Amino acid sequence: MSRKIGFWLLWLGFISYAFIFAPPDQPDTLELITNLSTGKITGINPLVIALFNLMGILPMIYACMTLIDGRGQKIPAWLFTSASFAVGAFALLPYLGLRESNPKFPGQKNLFIKILDARLTGIILTIGVVILVAYGVSQGDWSDFVQQWQTSRFIHVMSLDFLTLCLVFPALLPDDMARRHVQNNSLFWVATLIPLFGALLYLCLRPSLPETIVDGGKDIGEKLAPTA
Length: 228
Known about the structure:
This protein is mainly alpha-helical. The chain has twelve helices and two strands; from the N terminus they run ααααααααααααββ. It has helices at residues 2-21, 29-38, 46-69, 77-87, 89-98, 111-117, 119-139, 142-151, 153-168, 173-179, 185-193, 197-205, and strands spanning 212-215, 218-222. α1 packs antiparallel against α5 (89-98) and α11 packs antiparallel against α12 (197-205). The protein is globular, with a radius of gyration of 19 Å.
């Protein structure tokens, strides 16, 4: 219960800060978002470009966890996950605040779950993140980014959204590891203590999700589960 309260308090605090205390909107914000979304990036700070695109990859990282976790939840994980592609932590924090502990995966994997569960998906996401981070760090103008962070609500809130999603990812780890029968404290702490790249490493290394065979609504056994 305290965990749920914590996520709701974080969500309320994030919303309050974003709309009350963050810097004001700039007149060119809508144009900036449109240009970033359509690939018209000439003249835009590479750090902003990288951050904007990372905010598209982070929901995919979460989808690899939440849409599997949602199989055993009373709430529709797909709804929160889909919304996170537009509003990030504003959508995912409520899911974390509503979900129940779910250390099992009932039923069998459909094609979509198999894709999200695949290590190849984690590898592809990792390659994308590495390219974006390298591009932003090496080509970006840090002084300009700081100035925009201090004066633009869009850049300011997007940055905090990114940090929030990186930091709350470990909330999904214990149940996901339990579903896979993984008992590896080192992997848990790497994924917990290294923001973003720890989560990606976990997706690349986690064993395949075992399926539960269901007969008449009852579990009658599991496929051989991989061990770690």
